[in-house]
């Protein structure tokens, strides 16, 4: 199953790149579109395989450079526990930390944004004199669809 591509979203990241003075190359854009149309988190090699259908000459460094760019710009998230990638739900409209719900059966990933959870994490860290610069919060389980099967 393939999700439909939101052309408005693609236009939004094009505008963000233009305003930042960074290049959204054809390959970077294509990798972003592949991530957006996948119903689950995609590994770099899954993305490479899909990219090679339209660009047979594409090699792993092509995909990894595109992923690095998309991560740096805040357009995607890396799912650390599965070494895969998903679209950021806000495409960096505002800086945020996300909480990922990962289905261990179908590999679907849901991104949550909970400012109260982040505030609690910051508060707990500050109690220990610790400053958070990044965090990864991933929760594994079974999604509603897989539970009902």
UniProtKB/TrEMBL annotation:
* Location (main, coarse): cytoplasm
- Subunit annotation: Homodimer.
**A Pfam match:** FUR
Per the record, the gene is zur
UniProt name for this protein: Ferric uptake regulation protein
Q: Which organism is it from?
A: Vibrio japonicus
Task: Write out the entry's keywords from A to Z.
Answer: Cytoplasm, DNA-binding, Iron, Metal-binding, Repressor, Transcription, Transcription regulation, Zinc
The yes or no answer to whether the keyword Transport is present is no
**InterPro entries reported in the protein's UniProt record:** FUR, Fur_C, WH-like_DNA-bd_sf, WH_DNA-bd_sf
Localization terms from the record: Cytoplasm
Q: Does the keyword Heme apply?
A: no
Q: Which PANTHER family match?
A: ZINC UPTAKE REGULATION PROTEIN
Protein family according to the UniProt entry: Belongs to the Fur family.
